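Annotated sample (chain length 244).
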Amino acid sequence: MYRDPSSESAGHGPSYADSYAAAWDRAFGRLEGEGLLEAMITRVFPGRIALVSSFGAEAAVLLDMVARIDRSVPVLFLDTGKHFDATLTYRDILARRFGFTDLRNLRPDTDDLRKTDPDGTLHRHDPDLCCHLRKVVPLERALGGFDAWITGRKRFQGADRSRLAPIEAIDGRVKVNPLAGWTAQQVDDAFRHRNLPRHPLFDDGYASIGCAPCTRRVLAGEDTRSGRWAGLGKTECGIHRAAG
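Output written by the structure step:
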């Protein structure tokens, strides 16, 4: 019989997530969407899980699912200072619509920016370092009080995401990917069936939306994330590292 390891989580060490990830995957890995979220939020990690959202092109689907389960789940948004104004507006629209009670805007350290990116142009010559300062460090700090976090990544988005598991253990913390196996059509269907508003830039050709300086429209025949860091050989900001 499956034993819920969440009951043993108090005072866990750095290998906690790695030790139990396989058991959680066996118990819940065949679930997806709201089914997997329900198990993780209410049974395995009650009060110890957060949703990290970009409030990007597909974010509303996952936000809606979490809100239907528990509006008090903390929602973490990386407010990099480089977002499109439309993204910030969309964030506010969705936050009001879903009624989240704990939306946290994570901002980069002002001293770090003053020392390393004083004129705000770091993204032009070192995008990896820019992402590290504006995304990776603030998120690492914010996740310190959680055992697990939820992402909206999907295998159809390509690159390292093509092998994405529903439940991962990375750096001593669990990552839950409830939409890992979803197709682009399922995402589109969810927007229609749930009557969800699209990001203001979606219909203008932005299939994946990050910081304004590093995001362009996706051209015909390209995959959905081709507009991110185009021409730089970069596919991830750094907050998502492969397991293993």
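Annotation: The longest strand covers residues 49-52.
Annotation: Residues 1-11 have pLDDT under 50 and may be disordered.
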